[in-house]
Design brief:
Helix content is 50%, strand content 17%. By secondary structure, it is of the alpha+beta class.
Length: 817
Amino acid sequence: MLRTIIRQYRRFLRQSPLVTLLAGVVLAAGFGGSALTYTVMLARLAPRSSGLRSMAYATVAEEIGGGSSQSIPWKNFEHLRETAGWSDPVMIAYADSIRAHLSYQQNEREISVAGASNGFFATFTQGLAAGQDFSSAWQGEHGGTEVIVSSALAERLFTGPGGALDRNIVLNNRAFRVVGVAPKSFSGLWSPTDAWVTPDQIPSLVFGAFQREARRAGEQYSPIRDNPAAWQKLPFFYVLAGSAKLSLDGLQRKLERLVRSPDNLPDHLNVSAGLTKDPVWDRKIRSWARLAFLLSTALILAAALNYCGLLLAQAPRYAQEVRLKRVLGAGVLRIVLESMCGPAITVLAGFLMAAFGVIAGFWAMGKQGTRFLPPGGVSWQTALSILGMGLAIACVLAILIALVPSLRLLRDSGAPRMGYTSTASRKANLALHGIVSGQIASCILTCLIAVMIINAVRAVSRETLGFSGDQLTAVEVGPASKDVQIEFSTAGTGNFPLATFTRLAVEGSRDGMSGVKYMSAASCAPLAQPMKTIGIQPMDRDSPPRSIQFCGVSQGFFQAMGNPILAGRSFSDASFTGEVSEVVINRQLASELWPGEEALHRTVRVEVPAWDLRFSGLTRTPDATVFLPLRGNVFTVSFPLYFLARGTESSHSLEGFIRQQAASSMPSLGVSTSYRVDERLRGDFMEQQMRVWLSAGGAALIAIIAYLGLYGVLVHSVNSKRKEMALRACFGASAGSLRKIVIRQALQCSAFAVAISLLAWKPIMTLAASAWLGTVRLSWQSAVNVSLICVATAAIISLFPASMAAKASPAELLREQ
């Protein structure tokens, strides 16, 4: 049996080697691309940790500048939960892990500590291995001192989960009592975690090192101790929603209705599918993966239809051979199976090539760390299950592609009938035209997707930036090493280390670096980390506080950014110490707070830290933003620090200069990274251009496949109707009339394709309005133009077969007979 299959396939391959090879390669590209991108999509939406229950998950975060998002304050989470008022889905606040110093008897070590609200382990995991959840009274005046440790930490410190209960440990000089042990299968959401504390303790642990340094310096400032409720206003928490009853789409729609309600609109919340702490990158990867998945699926459809159409068109060539086999006694089943061997093996060979490509793709993505796949990557079990599903689809596709031409061949190989031309049968032509119409419809749909993406990228490229990127360099300053602790002592009116370092860097660059025209320090930079948020409330309006993104900046920031102040002035002085009494806002925030009114000299309250501030000017940036002077306690909430320099000085020279200033005034600081803003802008634009090229290239490839299929069907139709064309010419039909017959067939196929596309219009519009492709728009005018272009292309393709039909001659037909 195997030898017979191999012999039949070799014979099939010799008959049409080029078509077989191209069909296998194109199908392999489609299978491989769809399997790989589907795996990435699934991994990005799936929970990032083992030990979580099987349910639909989503993350709610705060929307900030540039379309990104970040964690939200506890008070926003409580407001969201109270507004919802439902029990399903369950909403939990979760703070990402931080490093903390643990002390227990003689054990001293650095561990990873995360924050979770009540019910996290009971709802999202299989429950605790020992002990109980946090008590409901942890939000008391002095906060909670309970901790749940991981099973691994319980084994290392207490010889087991049972021995860990009611033990006292010290985290950043604060005593905690162990009340529970997490299940062994769960070790954290996005990174390995050793312990979990109540939400109110996360800010205390974050500021723990700062408080120790402040006490060592004889200062009394503590943002948490001086204001016990201040922790509720700090953005540390992601809202995790889980439901065992709703689907992922249903959960996302329900949460989106919640965050878009009038009660929650001031918080600017957004919803991301899955559990993620990096919604921007996740959304970008999912957008790329979904685009590639759509193109790969369309490629499989177009290639399968094209290959089936070619096999169907070639079937009459083998009718006499099959008729002879039937006369010699060959069974129908054997004839069908033998004719199916070649096409079916071609499709399965294409899938086998795709499987090797998918495995190589997983290996390459694993080398990139968590850039494409989440922590833990994709398990081999998941990969094999996806490949198994792809194999099942390939088998079904192979059977369909091979069975249709085989049945056609079997039908045409019967006893000859007078006046019957099998190649010109109505059903065969209808099948061929239907296949071609499906191909052109897939071409139209992929072209529509490409047009949507091209329009979206063009719109992004035309957006006005809130800064000038020419000759602008950003240098990010962070810890000199991974384990170093930074001194955040900022109280008082005298210079503290961070202020001294910032002053030396800003003032020294103007004097010692001739290529620097403007130099400024800030907590934000173009194309860097998202801005942090604070609560802001106009004092002359009876309105609740709202979250606004902010940036702490030094004098000269707006000149360095090339962002002029439109009204008012900049800050009064360039001091880095003392209290904050004035801010600058942008025009967007002014129009939101005081629409149609003058914003200068108004007073607002900024909730974190709680200062009364007076506006001194306006600036232009796309999103509502408040700029605080980088002085005093603003340094505490503004890390990491950026230095922005405008001029011809190289980023390498700036790095060396800032390292030199840090070594002399604050050795715990170092340069984390530096970049030219214009170069990064070009890189981001190139990424968008790649999106355009991918969509346009995929649409072009599918168009080539579709119109090759159309050309092949038209040529086949002309060859099968040569007798009919000759008779028409004999009875006086002109060459133009014969051409019209072929052109009309092409236009009919195109019209059917447009009709199929219209049936898919609603799904395409739903796709355009969803997050599958990013922010894209499609108008009726674009859809009509794409359809007209595809119809015109079909008419042009039909001209060559039409010229063949016009050359039909009765004399030539008689000579052949």
